Amino acid sequence: SQQLTGALVVYALLGTSIALYVGAQLIGINYEQLRLQADFRYSLVHVRDNAEAIAFYGGEKREQKEVSRKFDSALDNYDKLIVWT
Fold first, then answer.
1. pLDDT over 90 for what percent of the chain?
2. Which end of the chain is more exposed for a tag (fewer CB within 10 A), N or C?
């Protein structure tokens, strides 16, 4: 009976500590995901708002690289989020 009680206390403490660790990691990853998605959306709005100037100065490739980089960053972080959940 005392062994069972001790085992249950250890089990509860171990489960709680694992949940706190994983939860802390997920909070950071979720925050980063929201930031990266917002950064990507902002870059799309930037391209839309400045399309004429981008085309006039021939900056299509540069803007494409920047938007692709931001999309890839958001996608990589989303993959990390999938692994943790």
1. 95
2. N
